[in-house]
Amino acid sequence: MSIKKNNKMAFILLIVVFVVPVILAKIALEMDWFNKASTNRGELLDPTIEAAQLLQEAERKWHFLYVIPQVCDSACENAIYSVSQVKTAIGREAGRVNAVFIATEQSSQSALEKIASISDTQVLQKTKQNVNKVFKDVPVNAIFIADTLNNIVLKYPTTADQEQAIMDSRDMLADMKKLLKLSRIG
Questions:
Q1: Which long-range contacts link 85-90 to residues 24+ away (Cβ below 8 Å)?
Q2: Which terminus of the chain has fewer Cβ atoms in its 10 Å neighbourhood, N or C?
Q3: How far is the C-alpha of 14 from the C-alpha of 181, rounded, in Å?
Q4: Nearest to 145 by CA among 133, 155, 158, 135
Q5: What gap in Å lies between CA 119 and CA 85, rounded to an integer?
């Protein structure tokens, strides 16, 4: 009788050790008892924005994308500077990344002149209607990252505060380095 009792206790102990943690884990997942980790620093766009209309002339690379506004204020100037600096800071992987500025018929001429003086950038002329069609409900006063298939996946705010713009640039750099490390394309 004691052998049967020991076998029964061993079986119960086996169930407790292996099955109970699985059940608790399933309950924890369903009840959202923990914060799901997110490693990106920019705002992940879900769903992504299909931007092939805007980027069809661009090379098949990862893109930093910024739409030049009608009036280029300090937030716009910080965005232009951030995009160019982050592109340079990528280092040896810079050949896999493109800094793309979208200009419309209403874009600031002073901003376009400033971009023209920056090396290794690309300005694409598009109509305001095309830009609105692509971005629909997403405001364009931000810096975006587009993947090699021309899907806009991440968004970063623009700011007039230079210190905050530098912090946002660090976030963009960290995210792009991570994307380049994980991606074999572009």
A1: 85/169, 86/169, 86/172, 86/173, 86/176, 87/120, 87/121, 88/120, 89/169, 89/173, 90/173, 90/176, 90/177, 90/180
A2: N
A3: 42
A4: 155
A5: 11
Could you tell me the two tokens for 94? 């810079």
Rounded CA separation 96/82 (Å): 18
pLDDT in tens, 76-107: 999 999 999 999 999 999 999 999 999 999 99
Take residue 153 and report the two structure tokens written for it.
């996946």
CB neighbour list of residue 32: distance below 8 Å, 6 or more residues apart: none
What CATH superfamily classification does 43-182 receive? Glutaredoxin (3.40.30.10)
Give pTM, 2 decimals: 0.79
Nearest-angstrom CA–CA distance, 171 and 168 = 5
Mention every residue, 6+ apart, whose C-beta is less than 8 A from residue 39. Answer: 178
